[in-house]
Amino acid sequence: MRAIDANILICHECHELNRADPDSDGQVCSRCGAMVHARRPNSIIRTWALLITAAILYIPANVLPIMTVSTLGQGSPDTIMSGVITLIHHGMYPIAAVVFVASILVPTFKLVGIALLLYSVQRHQPLSARQRIWMYRFIEFIGRWSMLDIFVIAILVAIVNFGRIASVEANLGAVAFASVVILTMLAAVTFDPRLIWDNTESDDDHE
Question: Are residues 76 and 29 part of one domain?
């Protein structure tokens, strides 16, 4: 049985369980006073808005240069993919693999994964609740690793600054990529996973 079937609402701020009041239009938490809802208001719409914005920014994040490394006054800007190729050419295969996974595969999986969750919930697709919740938890888990490139660039910009001898400069691609990461993290937060169980009444997982 779901909590909503037992007229129980959970507070998103302090996680207190509250008995639903059918006569109240705006119920508040008995512990912290925050507004409580059976489901997050406009969860699907907000998540779609964040996801579409992230998908649009994902294009310049991969097309525009993410950083420029200059040595003795010479250097060329690198996109994420060209940086991976450069690392491979220098024999740095483990680092190239980490950058490729964190900067290419993880953001792509998050965009596709959240979109699949939204579509399956809205269209009542025959995907088990167990599979959906596993996907949601995995998306939440890998989200933190998407910022790896941004952390590396921020450290390099702060440390490597020796004038014309050597310097590292962040480019617009880094801003676009950071925006994609932040937006996908917010999309995962605004999506209400309880909607998964609302749409799987006939699942074997719900028995």
Answer: no
